[in-house]
Design brief:
- This protein is an all-alpha fold.
- It has two domains: 39 residues, no CATH class; 43 residues.
- Helix content is 64%, strand content 0%.
- The chain has four helices and no strands.
- The longest helix has 26 residues.
Length: 84
């Protein structure tokens, strides 16, 4: 049963990965075959996307860093009540 569900989910995901021919025609050359919908309307769209990507990467970096080594040394910190 698990195998059938996994195959079904993966086949449905595969359908949504590739852009349709109309969407490919509307996209700039660099984005063809990757995304759906209308292409970017101005260069500000690229600026907003790259800004969002940079913020997301910084957030990911710090979340992983502080999860691995939080650096809290205070013995009254709440994490010590959980760890005991």
């Amino acid at each position: 049963m698990k195998k059938k569900v996994t195959i079904l989910v993966l086949s449905l995901v595969q359908v949504f990965i590739y852009a349709c021919p109309v969407c490919e025609r509307n996209q700039p050359k660099i984005l063809r075959g990757i995304v759906h919908g209308a292409g970017p309307e101005s260069n500000w769209d690229y600026v907003s996307i790259w800004t969002t990507i940079i913020i997301a990467l910084i957030t990911l970096f710090y979340s992983v860093k502080w999860t691995i080594k939080p650096g809290e040394k205070n013995t009254n910190h709440i994490k010590y009540s959980i760890l005991k």
